[in-house]
Design brief:
535 residues; 27% strand; alpha+beta; Beta-galactosidase, Chain A, domain 5; five-stranded antiparallel beta sheet
C-alpha cells in the first residue's frame, strides 16, 4: 500500500460509500452534426457467432437467458468482454447489423441500471465508445438507445476509476470525450471538459518519452495506441481541436510498437501480453495510415535499438532478433499487469520465435494466473524457487526487482548489452543477478553471474516455442530444428540441463504444450555460467 497515491486511497474509500444513484431524467442534449469524415476504425475479429452466441477469450457461450449477462459460471473477464460490444466494429460487422440492434435493445432491457458487470466503469466506457462508433458508421440509434447512452455517461461521470488510474481511467476519459463530441448541449460540454482535463493530465504520465505506455506491457501499449487513434478520429470527424499533446505521441508510440514486435509481425510477451485482445498489429498500423498518421514501411532495425525510458531493448543481427527486458515492473503505484520477468528475453531466428516468455491466458487470483506471472514462466534466472518480484493476488506486487548497472556496447561484428537486478537481495547472502548478452555472427552468448554469498538453488529457464523441435540432447547441450535450420544451445557451468514439459499461452484461453530447457544447480555464491546459442 505504501506505493499507492493519495487519490487512489481516497478513491477506494469513496467507492465504499458512494451512492449508486441513476439520473434517468430526460435528455438535456441532442446529437451533434459531424463536420468531417469518420474514418473506419481498427477492427477486431468477429466475436458474435449468432444472435446470442459469443466467443471471447477462445471460449464460446450462449447468452439466451437474460441472467447470462452476469452468469457466475463465466469468468469475470469473459463477462466484461460481453458488455464491451466490440463486435459492433469488428470485421464484417455490417453483415450483423440486425443482430447488433437486437443486442443493444436486449442489453437495455435486461441490465438493471447501476447493477451487474455491465454498469462497472470499465465495460461501461468501452460500450459507450462502441455504441457511438456504431452510430458514426451510419447506423441509427432510436430514442430509447440515445436515452440509455446518456444515462450510462452520467453514471460513468460519477464513478471514474480514480482508485485504479492507468488504462482504466484513460478508458473512462475516452468515453467522456466521445460522448461530449457525439452529443450537443451544456451537459455534453460538461462531459467533454472533464474528459479533456483528464486526458491532457494523463498523456504525459502514461506515455513515456520513448513512446511506450507506462504500464510496460506490449498488449496494453496496443490498447492505448488504439485509444489515441480513436480520439484523433472523432475530433477530426467533428472538426474539433485535438487535446494538447495527442498527435505528437503517435509516431513515438508506433516506433515503440515496431521495436517490440517479432519478425512474425506480432507483439512480444513481457508482463501481461496476449495476441487477440486487440486488433492485430497490422490492423492498428492500417488504421494509422487511414488517418494519415502513419506510413507503412518494411525497414529493418539492424543493430541495437534502445527504449531507454521503458527499459526494453531490441538487437537485430542477420537472422536473429532478440527482445530484452531491463525494465522495472511498471509504475510504482500501478504494477497490476507486471510479471516477475526481469532480465528475461525473447529470441526469433529465421523469422520464427525460438525462445519465448510463456504469455498470458487468464486473469483473476487463481494458481494458473500465479504460474503465468512467475519467474519460472519466463526466459530468465530463478533463485530458490522464488519470484524475482513478489507477484501475488491477481494484480498485485509486493517487493519489486530494481534494475541497475545497465550497459551496452557496439563494436565491429559484436554487440554487448547487460544489466543487474536486486530482486533476490532480501534472501540470505543478498544474491544479485547480472546478465550480459553478447551477439556475434551466428552466435549469441548469455553470461549469467549470481553475486552474493551463501548457497542457493539457481535455475536458468529457456522456454521454447511449440514450433521448435528438439532433435537431440546430450549433457548440457541441445540441438534444435528451427524452420529446417539447426540451432545448438550449450551451457557451461556447474549445473545439469533438463528438458521439461510446460505450456505456452499466446492468447487468453489458450495453452499449447511446449518444452522448457532448465539448467539448475546448487550454487555457492558468487557463481556464474554461460549459455551459447549458435546456428
Amino acid at each position: 500500500m505504501r506505493y499507492l497515491r493519495f487519490i487512489q486511497i481516497f478513491g477506494r474509500i469513496q467507492k465504499l460509500f458512494r451512492r449508486r444513484i441513476i439520473d434517468d431524467s430526460p435528455a438535456s442534449c441532442s446529437l451533434r452534426i459531424t463536420k468531417g469524415k469518420w474514418i473506419l476504425p481498427a477492427r477486431r475479429n468477429a466475436s458474435m457467432l449468432d444472435r446470442r452466441i459469443f466467443c471471447f477469450l477462445n471460449e464460446t457461450y450462449d447468452i439466451s437467458n437474460s441472467l447470462d449477462w452476469n452468469n457466475s459460471n463465466y469468468t469475470k473477464l469473459w463477462l466484461y468482454n460481453l458488455h464491451y460490444f466490440d463486435d459492433l466494429t469488428a470485421v464484417a460487422s455490417e453483415q450483423r447489423t440486425e443482430w447488433h440492434q437486437e443486442l443493444i435493445d436486449s442489453w437495455i432491457n435486461e441490465n438493471q441500471a447501476a447493477n451487474g458487470n455491465g454498469w462497472e466503469p470499465y465495460p461501461s466506457s468501452l460500450r459507450i465508445v462502441n455504441w457511438i462508433k456504431w452510430a458514426l458508421a451510419g447506423n441509427q440509434l432510436n430514442d430509447k438507445v440515445i436515452h440509455s447512452l446518456i444515462v450510462q455517461v452520467r453514471f460513468l461521470t460519477e464513478n471514474l476509476e480514480t482508485h485504479l488510474l492507468g488504462n482504466h481511467l484513460f478508458a473512462n476519459t475516452k468515453a467522456l470525450l466521445f460522448a461530449g463530441l457525439f452529443f450537443d448541449g451544456k451537459e455534453a460540454e460538461k462531459w467533454y471538459r472533464l474528459g479533456h482535463m483528464i486526458v491532457e493530465r494523463e498523456l504525459p504520465e502514461q506515455v513515456l518519452a520513448d513512446g511506450g505506455n507506462f504500464e510496460l506491457s506490449t498488449m496494453y501499449h496496443m490498447i492505448f495506441l488504439e485509444d489515441v487513434l480513436d480520439l484523433m478520429n472523432i475530433h477530426s470527424a467533428y472538426d474539433h481541436v485535438q487535446p494538447n499533446g495527442l498527435e505528437k505521441i503517435i509516431t513515438p508510440m508506433f516506433n515503440w510498437l515496431n521495436t517490440m514486435c517479432h519478425p512474425d509481425g506480432e507483439i512480444s510477451f513481457f508482463n501481461d501480453a496476449a495476441i487477440g485482445v486487440t486488433p492485430p498489429v497490422r490492423e492498428i498500423k492500417d488504421y494509422g495510415c487511414r488517418l494519415g498518421l502513419y506510413e507503412l514501411s518494411d525497414c529493418k532495425q539492424e543493430g541495437i535499438s534502445l527504449l531507454t525510458e521503458s527499459g526494453y531493448a531490441r538487437v537485430q543481427a542477420d537472422d536473429a532478433v532478440a527482445l530484452i527486458d531491463r525494465a522495472k515492473v511498471g509504475p510504482d503505484y500501478l504494477p497490476a499487469h507486471a510479471h516477475a520477468d526481469t532480465l528475461s528475453f525473447e529470441l526469433s531466428l529465421f523469422g520464427q520465435r525460438v525462445i519465448i516468455n510463456s504469455g498470458t491466458s487468464v486473469y483473476g487470483a487463481g494458481t494458473k494466473r500465479q504460474q503465468e506471472r512467475s519467474t519460472s514462466a519466463h526466459a530468465t534466472v530463478e533463485i530458490d524457487g522464488l519470484n524475482s518480484s513478489e507477484v501475488w493476488g491477481g494484480f498485485r506486487v509486493a517487493r519489486r526487482a530494481c534494475v541497475n548497472k545497465l550497459f551496452e556496447n557496439k563494436t565491429d561484428g559484436m554487440i554487448q548489452i547487460g544489466a543487474c537486478h536486486d530482486g533476490y537481495k532480501w534472501l540470505p547472502g543478498k544474491p544479485e543477478h547480472c546478465r550480459e548478452w553478447i551477439f556475434e555472427k551466428n552466435n549469441i552468448v548469455i553470461k549469467d553471474v549470481i553475486k552474493g554469498k551463501k548457497i542457493h538453488q539457481v535455475k536458468s529457464i529457456l522456454p521454447l516455442h511449440p514450433n521448435v523441435e528438439i532433435i537431440s540432447t546430450e549433457d548440457s547441450q541441445v540441438l534444435l530444428d528451427v524452420m529446417g535450420n539447426k540451432v545448438k544451445i550449450s551451457i557451461e557451468g556447474d549445473g545439469k540441463l533438463l528438458v521439461e514439459n510446460s505450456k505456452y499461452h499466446p492468447g487468453f484461453g489458450l495453452s499449447h504444450p511446449n518444452k522448457h530447457l532448465v539448467y539448475s544447480f546448487n550454487a555457492v555464491l558468487p557463481n556464474s555460467f554461460s549459455t551459447r546459442i549458435s546456428w
